[in-house]
Design brief:
Distance between the termini: 33 Å
Bound molecules: iron/sulfur cluster
CATH topology of the largest domain: pyruvate-formate lyase- activating enzyme
Helix content: 25-40%
Largest sheet: 6 strands, parallel
Radius of gyration: 23 Å
CATH class of the largest domain: Alpha Beta
CATH architecture of the largest domain: Alpha-Beta Horseshoe
Number of helices: 15
Number of strands: 21
Number of domains: 3
Shape: globular
Structural class: alpha/beta
Strand content: 15-25%
Length: about 475
């Protein structure tokens, strides 16, 4: 969650002058003031912090990885659960000490919590000088000028068309192999438990040409994997005001965009997140099946296994409908990895509803699952309509049961791969030793194997000889390309 960037300024600026995309390294000591940015929450927030870094760079601010050296401290916040917000408040308390030692420091809060609380943030957290919502990052330089004069600066206007399409994200903490590319912002679904539509606004799709340019630029600079990001990527829909590569005025759907990115090079792996079950089409599934370099992995949040609870969550599909979608995925892409999000303890959830969530997990046998207990978010439909009536102890017990069930499924999913051979994209050294490398399979499973002469960015054919609950262990057979 820190920013570290060090090399020459000239390359960066030339690229920025010429092309919109030059997301690489800069010598921070060349800058008059330095910023420190810390990000929390989903991949969209991390991608946004890269846009913020670029905007600040463009205005002569350099980055530092050490908040004690910073003139500006930014925290890019998440509001998805109460716990996420309390983490931010705790962190702000630590920054208070820094500000006491150096009153000249400016502190800014960005992201969803900033958007949810708006000016109230300034009353609740006196050390905060700037409150900036996810659609207002272009105004940061002006807000900093205001704050430098001692004013409190706020911009939490949501936009119907802001996508930062022309801003070259600066890759923070990048391994130089995989990168996030945001393709759309906001969400039009109104899941009753979710704060995102209120903190990130209405859905808008980014200009397809700018997405292609960014992916092409990343590939030309050695990146070998892009993850296309959006709250609900399947509803990506962009109508070209002009022709793209000779395709005239054809609306660009998500399936079309996936294909266009995949055609940049067979060496560029393509992933995407997040899908809403109601919007993932056969066209998308057949496109994934058609291109080897589009990964056979789909994150398909279900949230609950009970149709009654799904209705209260306003998820717009039933248990049966969701199961049919998972069947369809496995029919068209037999070895597809599937992961999900699950919430336990939603308003009025009965033991029977909970058992339905467990049995759905049993049926889908997810390779990966993110599981939480329900955390009421102020201002959401659920907070306005339903009582948060499941006791916390029950929520936690149900969550524990879910975690235990999934732990078993994920181990079985790993064990099933022992003896098989996979094409792995190397992302770097393993956490444990530099004698080993780590990377991921198409299905997004982590693989660790002895380094030999391979390196980051290589595609390696690895034979799996054993596994742990979270990692496949193998031996390299050859370089895939
Ligand atoms: S799809 Fe639902 S859960 Fe996901 S961001 Fe949109 S409103 Fe929230």
């Amino acid at each position: 969650m820190e920013t570290t960037l060090t090399t020459d300024l000239k390359t960066h600026n030339e690229a920025r002058q010429g092309e919109a995309f030059a997301p690489f390294k800069v010598d921070e000591t060349l800058y008059r003031k330095r910023f420190y940015i810390e990000s929390y929450g989903c991949a969209m927030n991390f991608a946004d912090s890269e846009v913020v870094a670029s905007i600040l760079h463009g205005k002569g601010f350099g980055a530092t990885k050490n908040c004690e050296e910073a003139d500006l401290i930014f925290i890019n916040t998440c509001s998805i659960r109460e716990k996420a917000e309390s983490t931010v408040r705790k962190r702000l308390t630590e920054f208070k000490k820094l500000k006491k030692a150096n009153p000249g420091i400016l502190v800014g809060v960005l992201g969803c919590m900033a958007e949810r609380l708006k000016e109230k943030f300034l009353q609740e957290e006196k050390l905060v000088d700037m409150v900036v919502g996810p659609d207002a990052y272009r105004s940061l330089p002006g807000l900093i000028e205001d704050a430098e004069t001692g004013q409190k600066a706020v911009n939490v206007l949501l936009s119907r068309d802001e996508t930062y399409a022309d801003i070259a994200p600066i890759r923070l903490n990048s391994n130089g192999v995989n990168a996030f590319v945001s393709i759309m912002r906001g969400c039009n679904n109104m899941c009753s438990f979710c704060v995102v539509p209120f903190t990130r606004g209405r859905e808008r799709s980014r200009d397809a040409a700018s997405i292609l340019n960014e992916c092409r630029e990343l590939f030309e600079n050695g990146y070998r994997e892009v993850t296309l990001l959006g709250q609900n990527v399947d509803s990506y829909h962009w109508t070209a005001p002009h022709s793209i590569d000779g395709i005239v005025d054809e609306p660009v759907t998500f399936a079309k965009l996936l294909e266009m990115v995949a055609l940049i090079s067979p060496l560029l792996r393509v992933r995407f997140s997040t899908s809403h079950p109601k919007d993932i089409t056969d066209e998308v599934l057949f496109t994934i099946a058609k291109y080897d370099n589009i990964c056979n992995y789909i994150h398909l949040p279900v949230q609950s296994g009970s149709s009654r609870v799904l209705q209260m969550m306003n998820r717009t599909y039933s248990r049966e409908w969701y199961i049919a979608k998972v069947n369809r995925i496995r029919e068209i892409i037999p070895d597809c990895g599937v992961s999900t999000d699950m919430i336990t303890g939603f308003c009025t959830e009965t033991e029977e509803d909970h058992q339905q969530s467990l049995s759905l997990m049993e049926y889908c046998h997810y390779d990966l699952a993110y599981m939480y207990f329900y955390s009421e978010r102020p201002g959401t439909l659920a907070a306005r309509r339903f009582a948060d009536d499941v006791p916390e102890a029950v929520k936690k017990r149900r969550l524990q049961e879910m975690v235990e069930l999934h732990r078993m499924h994920s181990l079985q999913s790993m064990q099933k791969d022992v003896g098989k051979t996979f094409k792995v994209l190397v992302e770097g050294f393993s956490k444990k030793t530099e004698a080993d490398l780590h990377g991921r399979t198409d299905q997004n499973k982590v693989v660790v194997f002895p380094k030999e002469n391979f390196q980051k960015g290589d595609y390696v054919i690895v034979n799996i000889h054993s596994c742990t609950a979270g990692t496949l262990l193998g031996k390299a057979l050859s370089c895939a390309i």
